Amino acid sequence: MFEDKVIPLDAWVSQGVDWLVENHRDIFQAIKWPIEQTLTGLDTGLNALHHR
Q: Looking at the whole model, is its pTM more than 0.85?
């Protein structure tokens, strides 16, 4: 009975992500920059400790 019923969750999620990216790209870019800088600094610091 339920074998033929499929919830298209993958399509819904893809459509939702596409909508978010199309409509809020500037916000994501603004959030990305400080996070990226923090992670790059941590990576550089931790790698510097390893090489000593």
A: no
- The maximal CA–CA distance of the chain, rounded, in angstroms, is 64
Task: Tell me if 45 sits within 8 A of 37, measured CB to CB.
Answer: no
What is the Cα–Cα distance from 48 to 5, expressed in whole angstroms?
54
Per residue in 1-52, pLDDT tens?
567 788 899 999 999 999 999 999 999 999 999 999 999 999 999 999 976 5
Please give the C-alpha separations between residue 45 and each of 4, 24, 28, 39, in angstroms, as whole numbers. 54, 32, 26, 10
User: Residue 49 in contact with residue 42, Cβ under 8 Å?
Assistant: no
User: Which residue's entry shows tokens 């990216």?
Assistant: 21
